[in-house]
Hints:
Blueprint: E1 4-8, H1 16-32, E2 35-39, H2 41-44, H3 51-68, E3 76-79, H4 85-94, H5 99-103, H6 106-113, H7 120-134, E4 140-143, H8 148-165, E5 173-176, H9 204-212, H10 231-239, H11 242-254, H12 262-276, H13 278-289, H14 291-320
Parallel strand pairs: 1-2, 2-3, 4-5
Amino acid sequence: MKRFLSGIQPSGLPHLGNWFGAVQMHLERAKQGNAYFFIADYHALTTLQDPEKLREYVREIAVTYLAAGLGETEAVFWRQSDVPEVTEIAWLLSTVTGMGLLERGHSYKDKTAKGIAASAGLLYYPVLMASDILAYDADVVPVGKDQVQHIEMTQDMAGYWNSTYGQTFRRPEWELSKTPKVSGLDGQKMSKSYGNALWIFEEGKALKKAIGRIATDSRPPDEPKDPKGLLLFEWLELLLPADELADLARRLQTGGANAPGYGELKARLVLAIETHFADARRRRQELLTHPEHIEAALARGAVAARAVAREVRDRALRACGLR
Ligand code: AMP
Ligand code: TRP
């Protein structure tokens, strides 16, 4: 069975887009076996230089995956920085990687254009990412469009190394995540950096307030509407059972006294979120009262991940003459 690997950057609190776009898909894949997931904390340092926040985001991502049920699967789940061999392999890879390849990086260009400091680490980011993938002999890496170039660079780096020193690294393939794009509170793609994201575990007043911010128009409730164009309906589609959705859609299309107004849809959405995440929320609370369980899960993952990375590292050291 092909080995599946993905990394998640702890650059903010995990939001609904991450949940429906990544966590759920990862969980499904984890149930099939041979799946590797890690929290890319070394990478996060290129954009986040606040130790307290970094600790919080790493913890929240770990808790999110564990609360979703990853701990009950065979998946290996760890924190990138617990396996320092990846930085070692990254160094080896950098010695066969042209500066030109890194300078052509879209992500590097986008981030520096947005004003993020052009550190050597930011330029080197794809080398560390290549190492993340090659260190675990991964076959398939699911990514969003923005990450495809990073996987192509990984293929290039594996190729340069293998043609210099002989077959050492397995060439990975990328797979476009099939998950639909989850819109943010303003209708644009939900993203940590757009200020339109809803944290997965938001609840109570804060949740109501956030849902209240979802953009709507000024059409009266009884005017017939196409549910397809409604941001609120799009969100409800992620959460409600099919029969209730069909009923809502019909009432929206028909209009009249029986049609739901935006206020009703918002109230339904708040309730749907509360219900959908009730279980995961309870597990999150349990984990937070026993942070040692979070650490223990990550430590277990690190042992398993490290065993693989060491073997690959040794293979690379032998190939290039350092052993
Ligand atoms: P990011 O938070 O952008 O680093 O993304 C982490 C993961 O969540 C990636 O697999 C993304 O494809 C996924 N993701 C992020 N935002 C969304 C969104 N708005 N809709 C669907 N998936 C998303
Ligand atoms: N760069 C990825 C992102 O921003 C995170 C990441 C780091 C990653 N290392 C990885 C993803 C290895 C897949 C494989 O989303």
